[in-house]
Amino acid sequence: MHYGYIRDRIAHLDRKLTQYGVRFMFPGVTPARYLAVKAAVTVIICLIFAVNDSNAIFVIPCMAFAYMLPDILVRMSNSADNESMMSDIESIYDVMRIQARAGVFLKDSLMDCYINTANKRLKAALLELCNQMSTNMTVQEAVDNFSAKFCNRHIEVLCIVLSQSQSSGKTVQILSDMSGQINQLRHLRAKCDEGRLERKIEFIQLLIFVGILAIGVYAMGSEIMGMAMF
Predict the structure, then answer these.
(1) What pLDDT does 74 receive?
(2) pTM for this prediction
(3) What are phi and psi of 86, to 5 degrees?
């Protein structure tokens, strides 16, 4: 029972490494190597505290944070990837919807999507999807493998649509009904762009405030020093 639980946790971590793009960035990574990195970061933090004779009360919380730090960075990296993929996913929806109406085969349509995709991670996955669909692998198996490479709800919807369009044979109808999904993507991308602009403005305002404050403190300090000299 204990070994079964460990095996399941390792399999879960193995899937996460693929879903969150770790294997795309570091092709040779394995669950064992990833856990070794987490352990190494924790040991380094522990040694830093030991060398600096820091208060022991902070050691355990900092070691716990150090152990979770790789997971946090991986999730942040995946979120950044998902945000950068949004324009490409929107383009994929548009291309497939238009080409389905024109009677273009699914594989040819996906190849066009691959050519027009800018995000490297998504582009590599699309190429593998097209290659697998050209072999003896079924469309469903190829789509499942493609879906397993991402933790992105818009790609999940795309994979569901691809699977349903093949099983029902109503490719044109299903892809035509994706206009709501496309509009949602555009709305989300607009909100993300707006949020980034607001953060940049707030950061500039903060810099200006800090600059004015620094000038004021410097002027006041100079005034006090001048008075002290007299």
Answers:
(1) 93
(2) 0.74
(3) -60, -45
CB 21 within 8 A of CB 81: yes
Cα distance between residue 200 and residue 197, in whole Å? 5
Distance from C-alpha of 147 to C-alpha of 129, rounded to nearest angstrom: 10
- Summarize pLDDT for 144-182 with one digit per residue, the tens: 999 999 999 889 888 888 887 766 556 666 666 665 666
Nearest Cα neighbor of 15 from 144, 104, 126, 113 is 144
Instruction: Tell me the backbone φ, ψ of residue 66, rounded to 5 degrees.
Output: -60, -40
What secondary structure letter does DSSP report for 119? -
Distance in angstroms (rounded) separating the CA atoms of residues 2 and 46: 29
Amino acid at 55: N
25's CB contacts (< 8 A; 6+ apart) are: 77
Q: CA 119 to CA 81: how far, in whole Å?
A: 8
For residue 138, give Cα distances in angstroms to 148, 158, 166.
16, 17, 10
* Spatial distance between the Cα atoms of 175 and 56, rounded to a whole number of angstroms: 60
What is the C-alpha to C-alpha distance for residues 26 and 70, in angstroms, rounded to an integer?
13
